[in-house]
Amino acid sequence: MGSLTGTSEPVLAYEAALSTFFQAAHSIAVSSGGAALQAAIHAVGVRPGDEVILTPTCPLCTVYPVMAAGAIPVFCDTRKDNFSLSLEDLADVVNPSTRAIIDIPMWGYPTPADELQAFCHERGIMLILDLAHAHGATFKGKHLSAYADVSCFSTHERKLLSTGEGGFIITDNAEIAKSCRDYSRFGNLNGVDFGVNLKLGGLQAALGANRLPNLKQQIARRTETAAAVAQGLRHSALREFDIIDGGHPSYYFMLLRHDFSDSAAFLDYLDSHGVPSDIKRYGCKCLYEFPLIAEYRRECPNAERLLSSVTTVPVHQGIGSTEIGYMLDHLNGYNGR
Ligand SMILES: *Cc1c(COP(=O)(O)O)cnc(C)c1O
Question: Do residues 212 and 160 make contact, with C-beta atoms less than 8 angstroms apart?
Answer without folding.
Answer: no
